[in-house]
Every structure is written in C-alpha cells, then in structure tokens.
Write a structure and sequence with these properties.
mainly alpha; 0% strand
C-alpha cells in the first residue's frame, strides 16, 4: 500500500474517532471500515490479526455502550417524558444549529423537563449532570476503544 492510500485510511480512522464525539456519526463503524479497507489492500497476517482483534473489541464495546446508559439512566430516575423532551430538544437544536446544536438542544430538553418536574434550578441542574454523566460514560468507553484501534493500526503501519 502506498503513502497516499495510507494517509486516506488514516484520515478515515481519525474521522471515525472524531465521529464518536459527534451525534449521528457512526464513528466506531468508520474506524472498523477504515481498518477493513487497509486489511483488504495489504493482506498480511498482521493486518488480518489486527482486524480480527479490533472487530472483537469494537463488538464488545458496542454491547457495553448499549447496556451501560440504560442501566445508569434507570438508576438516575429518567422518565419517558424526560427522554422525549431530550429528543425533541436535540432535534430542535440540530435544526437551529446544524449538527452542533444537537448536544445543547439535548441538554436543554432535559433541563426543561426536570425544571418542570422538580421546580428549582438547582435540582434540575443536578438531574442534568447525572444524565450527562451516564451518557458521557458510554461515549468515553467507545472513544477509548476507537483510539486503541487507531494506535494499533499506526503501530502496525510503522512496523511494516
């Protein structure tokens, strides 16, 4: 594989890592697709081993991220009404400020729902922090896994 192709694969992997932090972008799948592309272009034992290990890691991370927030959110007392308000806020934020507005809109929806339910600013902010910690934990787990795959790919490319 020549240098421009390696740079393109690296760009896809970096976009995947950044995509983990951007709502609506399938960051983990971009990382895996970039690694698959590299493996198919440079089919060595090292490349296939890395693809198999990364596939296993990313699948486990997907299972963990799908299970982690619901459990923590249930413990925090998240209601369906709050989830609906958060979703509506995210959609509204996305429409008002494309892509970047989804996260502040999500947070505003949670805050508004909790402010109506609990009545005070302090309690609503405490509830918002709890929900954001639960959601943030799963994002950090996914980000760490994607960074590990990127680092392993970089190590493999430099040793080849």
């Amino acid at each position: 594989m020549d240098v421009p192709e390696l740079l393109l694969v690296g760009l896809v992997l970096v976009l995947g890592v950044v995509g983990v932090l951007v709502p609506g972008v399938p960051g983990t799948w971009l990382v895996w697709a970039g690694l698959l592309w590299w493996t198919l272009q440079a089919p060595t034992a090292l490349a296939w081993s890395l693809l198999v290990a990364a596939t296993a890691l990313l699948l486990v991370v997907q299972l963990v991220t799908w299970q982690l927030p619901p459990r923590r959110l249930r413990e925090a007392g998240v209601t369906r009404r709050m989830a609906a308000a958060a979703g509506a806020g995210a959609v509204l934020g996305f429409v008002l400020v494309p892509v970047l507005g989804a996260v502040p809109g999500f947070m505003a929806g949670i805050y508004a729902s909790e402010r109506l339910r609990l009545g005070t600013h302090g309690e609503a902010m405490a509830s918002l922090r709890t929900v954001m910690r639960a959601v943030g934990t799963s994002v950090l787990v996914e980000l760490l896994a994607c960074l590990m795959v990127l680092a392993a790919w970089l190590g493999a490319v430099l040793t080849m």
